[in-house]
Write a structure and sequence with these properties.
222 residues, alpha+beta, Alpha-Beta Plaits, 2 domains, five-stranded antiparallel beta sheet, three-stranded antiparallel beta sheet, 4 helices, 17 strands
């Protein structure tokens, strides 16, 4: 389920944010749901073994912008927020409608529109365009015992394999289903994006992709 917001500064001035603003948008989302749900997602999340998943994502801020003194300046912005957990999206939308604003960084932004886009039809071959960088990585152990993060490009086989494995874990969390899939991600056009998340450099890829695969359900033995 997805919700799309359009926002503008209540003080009729530009929206000014650091170029690496993702953590500010994430904080704004946490602050726009109930404290109980916010604490659950932030501190615990949905568990699969030792892994924890938040099960929501959001786009980059969409709109015309200028870069000034290492800051990004928008006049108004659009934002997609998506989650397979309908309660999360509904609670977020209800809270924002009641408040009428969203605070991102030091900007108090008025919600000028809010709507739920129709659900896309997903078939065995589906084209998708990313709205935020897709990040796929592994943590490797170096010869001296240290840890190193390796970011995969969509031109490497591991890119598809890790996304496939990740999707299976999330499906099991949501529906307790185990599936056998043969997922392939074909690159139609892509460009690398290097972003800052707080003080960490993160690499991801934006572009147009084709998702190819067939799913076979495997019965769970109890």
């Amino acid at each position: 389920m997805r919700v799309y917001l359009t926002l503008e500064n209540e003080e009729q001035r530009p929206i000014v944010l650091p170029i690496g603003y993702n953590h500010l948008v994430q904080a704004a989302i946490y602050n726009s749901i109930s404290p109980r749900l916010s604490i659950f997602l932030h501190d615990r999340g949905f568990l699969y073994g030792k892994r924890s998943f938040k099960l929501f994502t959001f786009s980059r801020l969409m709109g015309e912008y200028e870069i000034k003194q290492r800051m990004i300046c928008f006049n108004n912005v659009g934002l997609y927020i998506s989650s397979p957990v309908k309660r999360f999206v509904k609670e977020l939308a209800n809270t924002l409608l009641k408040k009428g604003f969203m605070i991102i960084g030091e900007n108090k932004l008025k919600i000028t529109s809010l709507y739920f886009p129709p659900e896309p039809k997903i078939e065995s071959r589906t084209k998708i365009r990313s709205l935020s960088p897709i990040t796929v990585y592994s943590t490797l152990i170096s010869p001296d015992g240290g840890k190193k993060t390796y970011y995969y490009s969509p031109f490497e086989d591991e890119f598809s394999k890790i996304i496939d494995a990740n999707a299976k874990k999330k499906l099991y969390i949501l529906r307790k289903r185990v599936i056998k899939s043969n997922l392939e991600i074909k690159v139609l056009s892509a460009r690398e994006k290097i972003i800052m998340y707080k003080d960490t450099v993160v690499k991801g890829w934006m572009g147009l992709f084709e998702i190819i695969g067939r799913v076979h359900r495997i019965p769970i033995r109890v």
